[in-house]
Design a protein that fits this description.
It is elongated, with a radius of gyration of 20 Å. By secondary structure, the protein is mainly alpha-helical. The mean pLDDT is 92. The chain is built from 8 helices and 2 strands, in the order αααααβαααβ. Helix 2 (23-56) packs across helix 4 (74-93).
Amino acid sequence: MMELFCMSKPVLLPQGDFPPVGLGRRLAAVFYDFLLCTALLIVTAGLYKMVQMAIIGQQRMRELTEAGALDGDPLLSTVLLFVLFGFFAKFWTHGGQTLGMQVWGVRVQNADGSPITLWQALLRFIVSIASWLCLGLGFFWALIDKRKRSWHDIYSESQLVRVPKPKK
């Protein structure tokens, strides 16, 4: 009867005690995801501009663009930030791997092997931005941390591990 009330946390597959990821592999996955995210942001900005033009009209949009009134659009910046977070949050909380992480055999998880929560994903995202703004110091922290953790690993209480390639 007690089993009905105890819900176990899902565990990511494959299961195991995997080693932490080194800085090189971490940065390789980041670079791969950077390329994907660049394409995602270009498409998102294009769609945003098409919707904007449909609302205000082509002529008015041209006038505003030429006047520089659309430079630094805070709504566009906000949309792009949310899309970027959505990309990472979806992959990190469902399977623990972005596309770049899949290629490089890297996974983000909790210490017990379960997927991270949306809150942890938000913390990782925000602190990783801070890491880049500090000239990458938060990433390079993995070189001096005994468990090879970056700032966003530490603050989100998550870890990056190297998972074996799936057997074919």
